[in-house]
Amino acid sequence: ITNRGEIQTKVVINAAGVYAPMIGEMVGLSLPIKPRRGQIIVTEPVPKLVMADVLCAKYIVAKYNPKNLERSDNPETRLGVGLSLSQTHDGQILIGATREFVGYNKSTTHEALRAILRNATRLVPALKLIHAIRSFAGLRPYTPDGLPLLGQVEGIQGFIMAAGHEGDGIALSPVTGKIISELIVDGKTFMDVTCLSPARFGSLTHSEKVI
């Protein structure tokens, strides 16, 4: 159903990211995807400092162990702060990031931004000499095991999932597109994606609905 009426199709691909559960509800699915906020800071343009994208181990650990973060006494850890650095073509440095469960709230917070800067300047002292000029936040589609949902949903013919990448969606978009297109056209893929099947979370259907 669209704002221009109904469209009949044999296949529907749910690639709506954090909004995938809302699409799932249209066909009676309860999808294990939750929004997870990430806040980042943008600096003034400076000469080349970050030669390649930087991700620290804490940034990766925060993705896969949210329960450990919640139990921590460290405010930075509870916010899921882990260093990520990249520099744009015009010299601005992007400093991140947090991983927070706050629903669909995309606002930034002073607490998180201070925590990001403390962590970043501790690891890269040169950042202390650079001015931050803006900040923003986005939402990542989290799944309980940190892996995306890719493939046909059992019990709903033609309904295919391609969501839940949590921050890796842009990087994984080419291979995701290849996998989904092969599933639709050939019924099989060039690689085994069984571990990414929506069925790994059991039955997701909770009611009889159709788009």
- By secondary-structure content and strand pairing, the structural class works out as alpha+beta
What does the main sheet amount to? 5 strands, antiparallel
**What portion of residues belong to β-strands?**
15-25%
Radius of gyration: 20 Å
Low-pLDDT sequence parts: none
Spatial separation of the terminal alpha carbons: 7 Å
Shape: elongated
The CATH superfamily of the largest domain is D-Amino Acid Oxidase, subunit A, domain 2
Write a structural description.
With 211 residues, this protein is α+β, with helices and mostly antiparallel strands. The chain is built from six helices and eight strands. The radius of gyration is 20 Å and the shape is elongated. The chain starts with 11 loop residues before the first strand and ends in a 26-residue tail after the last helix. The model has no long low-confidence stretch (mean pLDDT 93).
Give a quick precis of the structure:
The chain is of the alpha+beta class. The chain contains 6 helices and 8 strands, in the order βαββαααββαβββα.
Question: What are the main properties of this structure?
Answer:
alpha+beta; D-Amino Acid Oxidase, Chain A, domain 2; 6 helices; three-stranded mixed beta sheet; five-stranded antiparallel beta sheet; single chain; 2 domains; 211 residues
